[in-house]
Amino acid sequence: MKGTRAAIRYAKAILDLAKDQKTAPVVNDDMKQIVATVAASKELQMLLDSPIVKVAQKTAALKEIFANTNPITEGLVNVLAENKRLNLLAITANEYTNLFDADSGKQKAVVTTAIPLTEALNTQVLAKVKELTGKDAVIENKVNESILGGFILRVGDLQYNASIANKLNNLKRTFSQN
């Protein structure tokens, strides 16, 4: 993804500053809000990516939208504006939350299922991830009906595929070989 390396550098710098000022969890909440807001608004995404809209207008809009954020978060918006990289705001915010979770001993676990996870299944998946990796995890559920049933669990580089579609493909390969 374009700009990811720069976004990671900005996120690391913001995380270091937030840890020094002991406001990392508060800034993490701001970053989650930024990611959710930008993802939910096509107009905001277009505004941030537009080369036609002036940086001052983008900055004013962002300060209005995210008025009640931590001064460090406001500083990130200002730095990105000065460097004409406001299009990296959502990516930087997402990288910050990833770095914060990793620094806190949490990891991201992506669970792909045919139907949305229930709260009880979510709890079971969290327990299984903790058992497998020894770390807490934040669960992200993706729904993909093509797996038919079961689940695919991805934690970092580890992937466990217990989907019905995978089992059917394995059977198909076994029968094709014979």
Automatic annotation (TrEMBL):
Keywords: ATP synthesis, Cell membrane, CF(1), Hydrogen ion transport, Ion transport, Membrane, Transport. Belongs to the ATPase delta chain family. PANTHER family: ATP SYNTHASE DELTA CHAIN. InterPro entries: ATP_synth_OSCP/delta_N_sf, ATPase_OSCP/dsu. It is found in: Cell membrane; Membrane. This is ATP synthase subunit delta. Gene3D superfamilies: N-terminal domain of the delta subunit of the F1F0-ATP synthase. F(1)F(0) ATP synthase produces ATP from ADP in the presence of a proton or sodium gradient. F-type ATPases consist of two structural domains, F(1) containing the extramembraneous catalytic core and F(0) containing the membrane proton channel, linked together by a central stalk and a peripheral stalk. During catalysis, ATP synthesis in the catalytic domain of F(1) is coupled via a rotary mechanism of the central stalk subunits to proton translocation. It is a peripheral membrane protein.
